[in-house]
Amino acid sequence: MSALGEFDLIRRYFTPSALPEHVVAGVGDDCAVLKIPAACELAISVDTQVCGVHFHADADPASIASRALRCAASDLAAMGAEPLGFTLALTLPAADENWLEKFSQGLLQTAQQLQCPLIGGDTTRGSLCITVQVHGSIPSGKALRRSGAKVGDAVWVSGTLGDGAAALALIENKIAVSQEAENYLLQRFYHPEIDFSLGVQLRGIASSCIDVSDGLLADLGHICSASGVGACIELEKLPIALEWRSSVSEQQAQHWALTGGDDYRLCFTASPQHATVLQSVHGVTCIGQIIEGAGVLVDGQTTIYKNGFRHF
Amino acid sequence: MSALGEFDLIRRYFTPSALPEHVVAGVGDDCAVLKIPAACELAISVDTQVCGVHFHADADPASIASRALRCAASDLAAMGAEPLGFTLALTLPAADENWLEKFSQGLLQTAQQLQCPLIGGDTTRGSLCITVQVHGSIPSGKALRRSGAKVGDAVWVSGTLGDGAAALALIENKIAVSQEAENYLLQRFYHPEIDFSLGVQLRGIASSCIDVSDGLLADLGHICSASGVGACIELEKLPIALEWRSSVSEQQAQHWALTGGDDYRLCFTASPQHATVLQSVHGVTCIGQIIEGAGVLVDGQTTIYKNGFRHF
C-alpha cells in the first residue's frame, strides 16, 4: 500500500497532457464538460471489466487498460458514432505505483490511438474493477440501431470471428498454437482493433448493427429480437482467421466463430441493393440473410449451441 | 444464485417504463443516444460506491441505490447543470432477486424524483460495486467551475454541514441521538437532497462552485488551488443542523462540519455585489471570504484538521 493520495494518484497518472478543443473541462472539476458537434446526438456506452472474470490478475496492466477501453469503444463503432472521450471508474485494492504506471501508460496510449481522450473518472478502494464509459457523436437520426433489420436483408460481419474464444483458450492453456498464432491471438484479445470508420461508412447503408461481444449467435439474435425477424447464416461462410484455424478441429473453430464472445467485430444487416458497395469495403463478409420468424438458423437448422457468454 | 440471465435481469429490473423525448435510445442497444438541448454543453460525472467502503452490505438496497444516484447527481448540481439521464454499471456477486427488486425500485424511484432517467448500463459478476454516471446540460460557457474564485469574493454553502459524518457515526453506533435526529441523519445519508435549481440560479452569480463530498476544508481547498487563492472561514458561521448538534460536543459538531464528507451541499464563491441576491436565496449561508495566498484558514488560523476523506 502506498502513501499516494487519491488526488495525487489522479494528477500523476490520469491527467492527459493535451485535450482536443471539444473538451471544455477534463479531469479535475466536478464534471467533465464536452461540446457536442452541431446537428449531432450523443452516443454513450459503459462497460465493466472485473479481475478474475474478464481478465487475469497477473495480466499485463497496459494490456488490461487497452482491452477495457477498446471493448467499450466497440459499442460506439457499432452505432456509427465517432469518439469524443471516455471516463474511467477504477476500483483498486491498493495504490500499487508499478501497476498504475503501466496501466495508465497503456490507457493513455490507447486513448491516443483511438482519438478518444480521457476526460474524467473516479478512483475508489476495493476489488479490482474497471468501468469505462465512452462518448461519441452521431449526426442526428443516423445511429445504427439493432431494430431495423428487414426480411431479405443480407447479414454481414467485419473481420474474423472466433478469435476472442480461441485467445481465451490459449490464455487458459487449453490449446497449443504456433508462435505466429499466439502473437495474433494475444493482439486480438488485448488490443482488438476498433474501426470507427466502418461504422461511419455504414450510416445510411446498414439497416441494423451490433458489435460481436457475446458471440455471433447471441448478438445476431439480439438484432433478430429487436427487429422482429429471424436470420439464417451459412456455416461455411463464417470468416475464421487462418492464423489459428488449423490449430484446432474445424468443428471447434466453427463453434468458436458462432458462439465465442469478445470478437468486437461488427455484425450488420443491409438491403441487397447495397451489396455492390459493401463488396468493395475491405474485410466485410456476407454470411447469410434475414428471414421471417425468430432466432438464428445455421444452414437452415435450429442450433443447439449455447447462446454466448452470460454473467448470471 | 438465480437462473436469471444477464439480459433477463436488465429487462426485468432496469428498463424504465417511459423515457423523455430527449432519450433517442435507452437501455437495450449498443449505446444509449441522447439529444443535447440547443446551445448547450454536456456535463458528465462518474461515481463509484463499493460495498464495505461506501455502504454496509446489510444496508437497505433501495437506500443504497438512492444514495448512489444522488451522490453522482450532486456533481451535476455543482456545475449548474440540469439532468439528462444516467447509466448504471452494476457488479454483483449473484443475481439475488430479492435484493435486485428492492435496489431497482429504489433506483427508478430516485430517478423519477430527480428527473434523471436510467438510459443504459452494464451488469457483471464480482464483488458488489455500483458505478453511476450522470449526464446533464448547461448553456454553453455557463458551467460553474472550481477555478474562478477571486480575492474578496464571499464563500457560501447551501444547507447544513457535518450531517454526513454524524450519520456515519450513528450508523457505526458511535453516537446516540434522539429518534428525530436519527430519522433526519439517515434521510440525509441515504437520500441527500440534490438541488439542481440552486446550481441553475448560481449561473452567472457564483465565481466558483464545488459539492461538499470530501469535507468542507478539502473541497474549499480544491477551489483555492484551482483558483490560485486562499480562503478564510469563520467557525461560528458554519451551518450545523439543530436536529443533532446538541447530541455531541460543540467541538465534535464543528469538526464534522469542517472535515466530514458526504454532505452533498454546494460550496461556492461570489463577488460581494451578489450578496443581496444571495441573502434572498433560501438555505444558503455566507461562511467566509476568499483571500490572497493558498489553503483554507479557520478563524485566521492554519488548521490541523485532516483534509477530508481519502481512498488511498
Task: Walk me through the structure.
- The structure is a homodimer of 312-residue chains.
- Chain A is α+β, with helices and mostly antiparallel strands.
- Chain A has 2 domains: 6-139, PurM-like, N-terminal domain (60s Ribosomal Protein L30, Chain: A); 154-302, Alpha-Beta Complex (Phosphoribosyl-aminoimidazole Synthetase, Chain A, domain 2), CATH 3.90.650.10.
- Helix content of chain A is 33%, strand content 26%.
- Chain A contains 10 helices and 13 strands.
- The first copy, chain A, has helices at residues 6-13, 61-79, 97-114, 163-171, 179-190, 196-202, 216-227, 242-245, 250-259, 275-279; strands at residues 23-25, 32-34, 40-50, 82-92, 118-125, 129-139, 154-158, 206-211, 230-233, 266-270, 284-291, 295-298, 301-302.
- In chain A, strands 8-10-7-11-9-12-13 form a 7-stranded mixed beta sheet. In chain A, strands 3-6-4-5 form a 4-stranded mixed beta sheet.
- In chain A, strand 1 (23-25) and strand 2 form a beta hairpin.
- Chain A is globular, with a radius of gyration of 20 Å.
- Chain A starts with 5 loop residues before the first helix and ends in a 10-residue tail after the last strand.
- The model of chain A is unreliable at 306-311 (pLDDT under 50).
- At the A-B interface, helix 1, strand 2, strand 3, helix 2 and strand 4 of A face helix 1, strand 2, strand 3, helix 2 and strand 4 of B.
- Strand 2 (32-34) of chain A pairs antiparallel with strand 3 of chain B, so a sheet runs across the interface.
